[in-house]
Amino acid sequence: MILLIIIGMSLATVIPRFIPAFIVHKLVFREWLNNWLRAIPYAALGALIFPGILSVIEGEPHIGIIGGIVAIVLASFGLNIVLVVIGAIATVFLLTL
After folding, report:
1. For the CA atoms of 59, 48, 44, 65, what is the dihedral angle to 10 degrees?
2. DSSP state of 1
3. Residue 65 parent element (H or E)
4. What's the pLDDT tens digit per position in 41-89?
5. pLDDT at 12 over 80
6. List of residues 6+ apart from 40 with CB closer than 8 A
7. pTM over 0.90
């Protein structure tokens, strides 16, 4: 009985995830919509990161903002994401000494 419940619950979570993937794959969107859809991950990432930047050190949001600016500058040079993150962390660390 428990095994049937587990299988049912797994199907209830898997099916709604797979159906849109198969449907969207077959649809052809206009170019402007494709461009908009490609921007969503970057917008979501920014929405997740920005509040963290402002709250790196309570009462001192400028330190996080400087670290974010350093990350943007490093990323604009095309550096690896690991180097960008290390650069931003090192900046915040040096500003807090």
Report:
1. 40
2. -
3. helix 61-76
4. 888 888 888 998 999 888 899 999 999 999 999 999 999 999 999 999 9
5. yes
6. none
7. no
pLDDT at 25 over 80: no
Instruction: Say yes or no: 94 and 75 in one domain.
Output: yes
Amino acid at position 60, single letter: E
Q: Do 97 and 61 share a domain, yes or no?
A: yes
Amino acid at 48: L
Examine residue 50 and state whether it is found in any structural domain, yes or no. Answer: no
Determine the pLDDT at residue 14: 92
Same domain, residue pair 62 and 89: yes
Residue 8 CB partners (closer than 8 Å, separation 6+): none
Q: Which residues of 45-62 are buried (b: 16+ CB within 10 A; e: fewer)?
A: eeeeeeeebeebeeeeee
Q: Which domain holds residue 8?
A: 1-45
Radius of gyration (C-alpha) of the chain in whole angstroms: 21
Same domain, 67 and 40: no
